Amino acid sequence: GKNLFATLARNSGYEVLDLGVKVSKEEIEEKIKEYRPDVLGLSGLLTRSCFEMVEVAEYLSRNESVPVMILGGAALTENFVKERIAPKYKKKVFYAKSAMEGVRILNELFSKKNI
Questions:
Q1: What is the pLDDT confidence band of residue 44, given thresholds at 50, 70 and 90?
Q2: How far apart are CA 65 and CA 31, in angstroms?
Q3: SS3 of 6, please?
Q4: Which DSSP letter does residue 88 get?
Q5: Long-range contacts of 104-108, Cβ-Cβ distance < 8 Å, separation of 24 or more
Q6: Is residue 47 over pLDDT 80?
Q7: Terminal CA-to-CA distance of the chain, rounded, Å?
Q8: By three-state DSSP, how is residue 70 classified?
Q9: Which candidate, 42, 61, 62, 113, has a CA 20 to 30 Å from the CA of 31?
């Protein structure tokens, strides 16, 4: 998931900061303030991580407005992102079912300057 996406994104010319796994929402917020990314990527393969993403979106919506790309796995669906994560966040939320689709979305966003 995230490692494949990071590799593909880097090979497509994007700078990627990989925070690792089981990163707290507070640490994510700190890194957003420190690095000022154009997009925040969240990825998860387990059902539990899906609900953690809802909490991260809700927490970050208070102070951050960086667009979020949710990279799906077996437990994460586009409907879950639209119904549970997107309503909690005040900026754009994008869903990618695969690493390749995630890079395609980045290419679209940056070519159109939609961010």
A1: confident
A2: 13
A3: helix
A4: G
A5: 105/69, 106/9, 106/12, 106/14, 106/39, 106/69, 107/12
A6: no
A7: 23
A8: strand
A9: 113
Judged by DSSP in three states, 26 sits in: helix
Distance CA 15, CA 49 (A): 24
- pTM for the full predicted model: 0.85
Could you tell me which residues come within 8 angstroms of residue 71 by beta carbon, excluding any fewer than 6 positions away? Answer: 1, 2, 5, 41, 42, 43, 96, 98, 99, 102
Amino acid letter at 101?
Answer: E
50-105 residue pLDDT tens: 888 899 988 988 876 789 999 887 778 899 899 988 988 877 899 999 999 999 99
